[in-house]
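Example for tutorial group B:
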C-alpha cells in the first residue's frame, strides 16, 4: 500500500480529493492506494461472476459491484472509506441516486474481502467496521492462507470465512475448506465449494 496524503481527511473530503484512476481507501484520515495481484483479481472476479449469475438466475433485487467505497466508522468515531473487493447492494438503494459517487454510507447486503499482505485489515479492522455499519454478511477469502493461525488453524490452509451478523450486532464465523459447499444467507442456492473459489 502507498500513502498518498498526510492531511487527515473526512469521508466527504476523501470523495472530493480521491484520484479518479486506481482504487483507494480512506484509512485513519489518509488516502491509501489499494493494489492487488492478478491472482487476487482472478479470485475476486470468479466470485463476482458467480454472484451475478445467481442474481440473474433467481431475479434477486441486488447489484454486484467492485468499485464501491463504504463509509465506515472505526473506534473513536474515525470515519473510514473502505472498498470491498465485492459489494452486493440492494438494487433500490443503489439506484436511489444514480448521479452520486459510487460511495455509500448505509449498510450493503454482503461485502467480500480477498486477503493480501494487509490481511489484518480484513480480519480485524474491516470486520469491526462492517459489523458497526450493520452489513449482514461478510466474507474473507484467504486463498493464500496468509492470516494468523488463530483463524486458519494448524497447519494453515486456504479458507473461505462467512461471517453472519447476529441480533447483538456481532459476527458469527463459519469456515469452509476444500470440497465444502459455501453456505450464504444472501445466496441460499449458491452452488460453490471453497476449493472452486480458492483455486479460481
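The residue assignment follows.
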Amino acid at each position: 500500500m502507498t500513502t498518498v496524503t498526510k492531511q487527515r481527511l473526512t469521508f466527504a473530503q476523501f470523495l472530493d480529493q480521491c484520484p479518479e484512476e486506481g482504487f483507494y481507501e480512506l484509512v485513519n484520515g489518509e488516502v491509501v492506494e489499494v493494489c492487488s495481484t492478478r491472482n487476487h483479481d482472478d479470485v475476486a472476479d470468479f466470485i463476482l461472476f458467480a454472484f451475478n449469475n445467481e442474481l440473474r438466475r433467481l431475479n434477486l433485487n441486488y447489484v454486484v459491484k467492485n468499485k464501491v467505497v463504504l463509509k465506515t466508522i472505526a473506534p473513536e468515531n474515525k470515519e473510514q472509506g473502505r472498498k470491498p473487493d465485492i459489494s452486493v447492494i440492494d438494487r433500490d438503494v443503489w439506484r436511489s441516486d444514480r448521479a452520486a459517487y459510487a460511495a455509500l454510507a448505509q449498510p450493503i447486503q454482503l461485502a467480500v474481502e480477498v486477503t493480501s499482505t494487509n490481511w489484518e485489515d480484513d480480519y480485524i479492522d474491516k470486520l469491526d467496521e462492517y459489523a458497526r455499519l450493520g452489513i449482514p454478511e461478510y466474507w474473507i477469502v484467504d486463498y493464500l492462507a496468509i492470516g494468523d493461525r488463530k483463524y486458519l488453524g494448524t497447519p494453515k490452509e486456504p479458507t473461505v470465512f462467512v461471517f453472519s451478523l447476529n441480533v447483538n450486532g456481532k459476527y458469527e464465523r463459519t469456515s469452509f475448506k476444500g470440497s465444502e459447499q459455501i453456505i450464504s444467507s444472501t445466496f441460499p442456492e449458491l452452488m460453490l465449494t471453497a476449493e472452486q473459489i480458492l483455486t479460481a
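The longest strand covers residues 159-165. Compare this with the pattern of hydrophobic and polar residues in the output above.
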